[in-house]
């Protein structure tokens, strides 16, 4: 089972069972706003926002047990993914929970709508004054220093003992989000030595689809299954340009039709504005799925800012939107994230459980591990190692970065470490224990040795060539690595579906059971927090995970 541990002094969740029935009891609190946020003053009482209340699901542990069973290659139930209705029987709240929470809201003159495929979310438009009264809170305005954006948040909030057991999370409340989520950066790298393998010499200094095909044995054979798909979420007005994709294909995939494109869906008022000046570097996700997962259908879901509560609202909305579909995508790769310590434990857990539900239905959920080394999703000042989120969720696959060829070397920005919220899952316990034994006392006291360890795998992530606004250049970031690995999974899924088999779904138990199917990376580290970080060692490590793809070996592990 996957347990939880709390980071001492971070977030407190009160035990309310012994409290008087009608007395507000502390639900969650934090001492201060995270680094990078400045307190401005009291939030205007008339300010309005969408308050989301996550209801406790009736059987999350049952869903977890089922997921791990159907994702275990040695189980007779392997690949028997669940339907939407079957998943929802686990996630749905009890009637008692819905009645109690709705009664509480009605008594406070708040009308809430039920949302979420399983009916496990309530949402209502409220003013700050209403939220303060409802939650015995004190909403304040905090400014995100880097972007200048302001948010209403409270450092503590309470609910009556009669409803506390039925609520999993409340947002926005004490969770903060970084509105400038990790993006890859333009870069130019120096040359590296290559050996005599059939890898273009240019791959030592710049990465293209041809390099990935040579390095990892990725085939150019077009996929054939229309039901197979990869979904790429986009946030913060990072627009995928069709003209740039065409130029990319003309430069780097001359063997396929340059008119090959992608589908677009919008959410929360999102748009995909076309034109060179609107180009976003995050569009590399589209270029490296269309350009590597040959002929696999790709959908770009552009998430707008109508969530009223920042990118965390977008994360909630997209996973709920995908979960509401009768047929889910086989792969979803996301290149954005937060720091785990910026979120409440309740919200982090609810989001993680939503990814668990997608995995149970057959979706491989991938996230870039982050670009801050041991400093978390992004570089920051720290005295102990930080954790990226959602990368630290145990029900998804986190992808780190490497560079170079023969050998590949861990990228120093590749975020990795150990969650302070989620415990070490069984599927990686042996691999993680082996690493910690070899590590010894290095970094002792700076990380949680019993936490979920990440990343799980890695791929090239430095000087990856893209076209942005009509110009070709290189980018660095785990944002490049995740869609590359997603493309490998998409191609294997295509063969599985063509053979009448189930797609891979939640990957991690299969990955760790087939560690030999990856190119082990044993050089490099991810420094930060005044240390050298974690070293890449033989076997799994918290910089490159199990290593980079070996397509032929992975295909064999999938049963071919």
List keywords for this structure.
hydrolase, Rossmann fold, 560 residues, Sedolisin_dom, metal ion binding, alpha+beta, protease, disordered N terminus, eight-stranded mixed β-sheet, calcium, 2 domains
Average of the residue pLDDT scores: 89
Distance between the termini: 31 Å
**The CATH H-level homologous superfamily of the largest domain:** Peptidase S8/S53 domain
Assign an overall shape.
globular
How many β-strand runs? Answer: 27
How would you characterize the largest beta sheet? 8 strands, mixed
Number of domains: 2
CATH architecture descriptor name of the largest domain? 3-Layer(aba) Sandwich
Number of alpha- plus pi-helical segments: 13
| CATH C-level label of the largest domain | Alpha Beta
**CATH topology call of the largest domain:** Rossmann fold
In what range is the share of β-strand residues? 15-25%
Radius of gyration: 23 Å
Structural class: alpha+beta
Low-pLDDT segments, ≥5 res: 1-19, 182-197
- What is the helix fraction of residues, given as a range? 25-40%
Explain how this protein is built:
This protein is of the alpha+beta class and 560 residues long. The chain folds into 2 domains: 11-57 and 92-171, no CATH class; 185-223 and 230-557, Rossmann fold, CATH 3.40.50.200. The chain contains 13 helices and 27 strands. It has helices spanning 60-70, 84-91, 95-107, 128-135, 209-216, 242-252, 284-290, 311-323, 345-360, 426-439, 478-498, 508-513, 551-557, and strands at 11-12, 24-30, 37-42, 48-55, 113-115, 121-127, 140-144, 150-153, 156-160, 167-171, 185-187, 230-234, 263-267, 298-303, 331-334, 338-339, 364-368, 388-389, 397-403, 409-410, 417-423, 451-454, 457-460, 464-468, 471-476, 518-519, 548-549. Strands 12, 13, 14, 15, 17, 19, 20 and 23 form an 8-stranded mixed β-sheet that branches. A 4-stranded antiparallel β-sheet has the order 5-6-4-10. A hairpin with a 5-residue loop joins strand 19 and strand 20. Helix 7 runs parallel beside helix 11 (478-498). The chain is globular. 54% of the residues are buried. The model is unreliable at 1-19 and 182-197 (pLDDT under 50).
